[in-house]
Amino acid sequence: MLIELTESDKDIAYSHAFVDRWLELSKAPSQVREHLGTIANGIKDLRERYYAVQEDLDTTNRRYTDLMALSAKYLQVIEKYKELADANPVEREQVPG
Predict the structure, then answer these.
(1) What is the spatial distance between Cα 65 and Cα 1, in angstroms, rounded to a whole number?
(2) Exposed, middle or buried: residue 47 (CB in 10 Å: 0-12, 13-18, 19+)?
(3) DSSP code per residue over 17-70
(4) How many CB atoms lie within 10 A of CB 13?
(5) CA 16, CA 8: separation in Å to the nearest integer?
(6) Do 52 and 69 touch, CB atoms closer than 8 A?
(7) What are 2-59's pLDDT values in tens digits?
(8) Is 97 helix (H, G, I), strand (E, B) or coil?
(9) Taking CA atoms, which of 42, 57, 66, 94 is between 20 and 30 Å from 51?
(10) CA gap 1, 83 in Å, rounded
(11) Separation of alpha carbons 90 and 17, rounded Å
(12) Residues whose CB is less than 8 angstroms from the CB of residue 55 and which lie 6 or more positions away in sequence, other chains included
């Protein structure tokens, strides 16, 4: 599923790319670069997990909708059978006894 990016998503992606590029070219101490890289990668991982959960939720919602539609059809069939049974009562045989 293709997810349309919001302006906020675009800003975060741009900032992430900027930080990645800065980390490549920076002469900052290695410890600073390492920590910034960890933060940037953590944000990227969280966003990917968010999108995966969003996809799972969309799939679950579609399945729920399909199930509700199927349940409604089932109830209509049951109601129709009940109407037919009420309209055509079966004569009961009397058992001698």
Answers:
(1) 18
(2) middle
(3) HHHHHHHHH--S-HHHHHHHHHHHHHHHHHHHHHHHHHHHHHHHHHHHHHHHHH
(4) 13
(5) 12
(6) no
(7) 667 788 888 888 888 888 888 888 888 889 888 988 998 898 899 899 889 999 999 9
(8) coil
(9) 66
(10) 44
(11) 76
(12) 1
Q: Give the residue, 92 or 88, on which the prediction is more confident.
A: 88
> What was the pLDDT predicted at 97?
56
Give dist(CA 68, CA 75) in Å, integer. Answer: 11
Nearest Cα to Cα of residue 21 among 46, 42, 40: 40
Q: Which residue has the higher pLDDT, 96 or 30?
A: 30
Total residues found in the chain within this entry? 97
